[in-house]
Amino acid sequence: MQNNNTALPKEKIDAIIALYSSGKIKETIEAISVLNKDYPNVPLLFNILGVCYKALGNLKTSIKMFEKAIAIKLDYAEAHNNLGITHTQLGQLDAAVKSFKSALAINPNYAEAHNNLGIALKELNQLDEAVKSYQKAVAIKPGYYQAHNNLGNILKAIGRLDEAVQCYEKTLTIKPEFTEAHNNLGIAFKDLGRFDDALKSFMNALSYRPEFTEAHNNLGITHTQLGQLDAAVKSFKSALAINPNYAEAHNNLGIALKELNQLDEAVKSYQKAVAIKPGFAEANNNLGTIFKDRGQLDAAAKYFEKALAINPHYAYAHNNLGTIFKELGDLEKAAQCYANALSINSSYAEAHSNVGNLMVSLKRLDEALLSYEKAYSLKPEIDFLFGNLLHTKMRLCDWSDLAEHLNKLKIKINKHENSLSSFSLLALIDDPKIQMKAAKTLTNKLHPKNLDLPVIEKHPKHKKIRVGYFSADFRIHPVADLIVELFEIHDRSRFEIYAFSFGPDSVDEMNLRIKMGVDHFHDLYKMPHKEAAIFARSMELDIAIDLGGHTQNAPTEVFAISVAPTQVSYLGYAGTMGSSYIDYLIADYMVIPKCNQNYYAENIVYLPDCYMVNDSKIKASKKVFSRKDVGLPVEGFVFCCFNNHYKITPSVFTSWMRVLSKVTGSVLWLSETNSRAASNLKKESKINGIDPNRLVFAPRLSLKEDHLSRIQLADLFIDTLPFNAHVTASDALRVGLPVLTCIGSSFASRVAASLLKAVNLPELITTTQEQYESLAIELAEHPERLKIIKDRLHDNLPTTPLFDTLLFTKNIESAYLKMYDRSRLDLKPENIYI
Q1: Fold exhibited by the domain 465-607
Q2: Which of 256, 366, 644, 778 is most buried, by the most CB atoms less than 10 A from its CB?
């Protein structure tokens, strides 16, 4: 401290300074009070009093003392600086800036005042000016390590990370033991993605100060980002051992435990964080995400709403709440939540992606594509975004850059990136090995084995084998259309049939028929996954059948917990689940040749005919359609394909166009799902030299029976590859419409062949695109040959197995019996041949 009054003897000044420096604050105040009687106008004494009162926390009195010192000596730079520091501590930032600037007007080379001015300007968010102040401080005083550190902090805050690193490194060359700088350097390295360097910096900080809780916490965050979750947990626990009330460390521990799938422990950590810090919006949000993942949607919504009550501008919580409303079916509220998130952060890629998901649910595919493209431009690495974008383009028949996208997709799958839903992949790549990789990646990410409940013990033997069917589609839906009669005609002397619904209670005709066709129907829609599993377990099922697989709203999380000793995948998803908890996949020799068994995680159940069950009761309506009624030409050959548009690939469409070019006057009759897809297909036909008017689009009819009547106007159903017609092929064959297919390698690309074999029409199964086109042209140009095939189909239908539901039921029940017997004998599942 400077001597600002020569009237006060030097020895007395030195004595006061020595007393203050020894930490005897109250004694210093008393000594100055005595001196003030004889020396009432010494600015130095009032400056020291101000410093003393500030040390005691009496900031208002401190300000008065500094102001007295300045009143006596206007050019007292140190008092101006100290006054500024005190104003800063009180949050009086404008006054603080004024004081620091006064100090600097007196002494432009006052490095400490430049540094302190930088601190106040930073708090006022005048970041560029703060940078200049810190830079002046270190220019004046190069060894001023605190200012170098502060400059690093502000450069880090404004994203100038490389410069921040240089500042921290300069700080540490001056003072190697400055732990805060090691910690700050670690944060900068972490933000730069230099995680190994970050780890070293945090370890350096801890080598100097082992009890440095923030460094332990940051070390844990870095381990988490590196996927070193066990090490992360250890670091967070070290921080909490030092400071059990460190809310941020509890929250971060919860994040690591969640990644380790230790969800109960994660919940406890988040709850501790909230208990310590009730206004901790992020911890409330994180609690919400766990309850969302568990299917406890109401509880999740409450936590997201708590987070938003704390911080209404918390974009992440708005986005998460939107996903809850979407899952609950309240699409209007979901849209509002996403809009709220994007109004706060227009570059929030995940929210744009979720808007895309919402638009898909609303069947507004054009808008969905725009949202996905925006999200992808901002953050292409979002899980499954690439696949959602690609699948939406396929639904719109937008094939721009498809070859490039497919190459990129294969690379992502081989790297085990979460790029595409397994279901969407079936329409793009006909390779069961790649499909299995993608399925495993998806299962590991979204539906890993869940150990929340103990392993199911062997049930007491019941009078009947209890079989439970689980689905979100017990309504008017292709899966229900196929399986409903099986429920009705199961052998009730040996089997007791349960249905567990995970979709809205539609109460439509199909929903009511299913409820009547089973012995027990349970609505588990909106029930949390664990509670649903507990409920299903209480039924003591012997066999549980997942009818959804990797399709929308399927109860996969419930099967991940396990609901029965034997778990089976069937019908809704034509591929492997890639999981360890599904024991069997029901198939046939055509869809999964023995040589392909290694590409399926499940044991294969081989039914003797076609794996696909059918409802023999469904018939075409008596409504008579004419070609004119449905927009078809009165004359000419009618090729048709009523598959979803995402199954139409450029190679398939080009093949169709070649066929049309060879068959004069022919047309292609397709389903109409959206106007943009129709427009794109017409454009593609023109590119291929075919009049767009030769493409005719059939709108959806409300009654399936009417559709079955209508499609009899077609002459030949031509199939897609790699995702064949499934239900649509069955519908065509049912009403006598021949189906021409090209067989592939994967389950989904061999289904139509299985159906044709089951009606004894193997000649309609081709193995190359050339054969496929040639046979399509030949049948169109030789009506007599097509008539022979149609007559054979007509004659075969009553005697072949495809629509013999009673025979199918006996076969699948034989499979269930073999599964059941192995389970009762404690034998591992193995391939079953019926």
Answers
A1: Rossmann fold (3.40.50)
A2: 256
